[in-house]
Design brief:
alpha+beta, five-stranded mixed beta sheet, 13 strands, about 55% helix
Length: about 450
């Protein structure tokens, strides 16, 4: 679940949605910030204009006593949380509903009532000397402070839903796009593993760019399948056309061998020629068999195969040959029966090729194990040895036709055994994996 969410967050639609949200949020924040600054400045200008008007009204009084009485009268009706009036007469007496006091922390407005409580809030004030005294008028900035809350609410109400809608839309598009990309990805995986008939199923709801990509993948797969089929047909035709002449040569050599003594130079040379012709015939026979397997023709003979019995039989057949090479071969077969729908002869040849390869490419004293078990509901066959193994970078190459490692070129074989094994595995809808047995090689076949 976490990996799926991480993949969605890394998808292009979500990134585009995040980019658009970031761009919209930046523009909105800049616009709201500019509006707030302009509105705040307008409010402050209005308050300062009101303060100057208040001061001008008090200046109209004829003397200090008149100013004191006027301040005292207006302060009784004034709300100190909104307007504070203060007039200090030349004699030092204070009239009004508050006074400005100063301490180490700065200026404060305190009440003139008993207890001298300090007024909360922030004020804009204007002080001027008047008739030997000092007049102070202060107006609260509560409206400006409240303006900040209003703008924050506007920001949340306008921006938050937009962000949520944009992200939800991005996630929806990302999931939809991911499903389409997964279809293309699975098709490419099938093509990579050898299923050249795999194609991308493009539905009408796909985006134009994904439809074009899917069409190009199908076009590439079609061309690759056609080329591969052509190469397979050429190799099959060559093998088929040359099989009969080679068999005739073998028959002629057999006839000649009956008339020549084996201990003569001619007889020895003839025996070598017969051996080479037999090897060539074996190669062509393997190529034809691989072509038949890849064409899927043996599927018509599929039936239920008892893998337990097949593994035990092959182990008994090859155990004497392994013992003759001073190798130990044993099988591990479960008590529970494991069956599979397939061709018994091909499955037997597949395991025979693996056992012969293990016996051929491991030294004396090696141990070879044939194991059968069930994993995740599927039959699994493993052939393991403790020989030299196959280098990791060459494990994919040995499945190619006629490919042989440098270390095994001096041993009998034609490089087609593992190719036939892979063909049989694919014919039965399975997978083959060449793994490190530490030491040696572990071939795991899942049917």
């Amino acid at each position: 679940m976490t990996a799926r969410l991480a993949q969605l967050w890394r998808s292009m639609p979500v990134r585009l949605a995040l980019l658009l949200v970031l761009l919209f949020s930046t523009v909105s924040l800049m616009g709201l910030a500019a509006s707030y600054a302009v509105t705040q400045n307008s409010f402050e200008t209005a308050i300062r204009a009101d303060l100057e008007q208040d001061i001008a009204g008090f200046r109209a009084a004829p003397n200090a006593r008149a100013v004191a009485l006027l301040v005292d009268a207006e302060s009784r009706d004034a709300d100190p949380s909104r307007v504070v009036l203060s007039y200090i007469t030349p004699s030092g007496r204070i009239y009004g509903n508050g006074a400005i006091a100063r301490d180490d922390e700065g200026y404060h407005i305190v009440s003139l009532a008993e207890g001298r409580a300090e007024y909360d809030g922030v004020y804009l004030s204007l002080t001027t000397p008047l008739y030997g005294g000092q007049l102070t008028v202060a107006r609260s900035r509560a409206q400006i402070e409240g303006l900040r809350t209003v703008f924050l609410n506007i920001l949340l109400i306008s921006l938050l839903p937009t962000v949520l809608v944009a992200l939800s839309g991005g996630l929806y598009l990302a999931r939809r796009s991911k499903r389409h990309v997964d279809v293309i990805g699975r098709t490419l995986d099938d093509l990579t593993t050898g299923d050249l008939a795999a194609r991308v199923t493009v539905s009408p709801g796909w985006a134009d760019d994904l439809q074009r990509i899917g069409s190009k993948v199908n076009q590439m797969a079609g061309a690759q399948e056609a080329q591969t089929q052509m190469l397979r047909q050429v190799s099959s035709d060559i093998a088929h056309d040359l099989k009969t002449p080679i068999q005739r040569v073998a028959v002629h050599l057999d006839d000649l061998a009956r008339s020549l003594p084996e201990d003569t130079d001619e007889g020895i040379l003839l025996a070598k020629a017969q051996e080479e012709v037999a090897g060539i015939a074996s190669v062509f026979q393997s190529l034809l068999q691989i072509a038949s397997v890849e064409a899927g023709s043996p599927k018509t003979h599929f039936a239920s195969v008892d893998l337990n019995q097949l593994c035990e039989t092959l182990s008994e057949v090859y155990e004497p040959a392994a013992a003759a090479k001073q190798q130990r071969l044993h099988s591990v077969v479960p008590d529970a029966q494991i069956t599979v729908s397939g061709d018994k002869n091909l499955l037997g040849q597949m395991m025979s090729n693996l056992l012969e390869n293990a016996m051929r490419h491991t030294p004396e004293g090696s141990e070879i194990t044939l194991t059968l078990f069930r994993a995740q509901g599927r039959p699994v066959i493993e052939v393991a040895d403790n020989g030299p193994g196959i280098p990791e970078d060459a494990r994919d190459k040995v499945l190619r036709r006629l490919y042989r490692l440098d270390a095994s070129r001096h041993t009998p074989g034609n490089g087609l055994g593992l190719s036939l094994v892979e063909g049989v595995v694919k014919l039965h809808g399975g997978q083959i994996a060449l793994l490190d047995n530490a030491p040696g090689l572990l071939v795991r076949i899942t049917l």
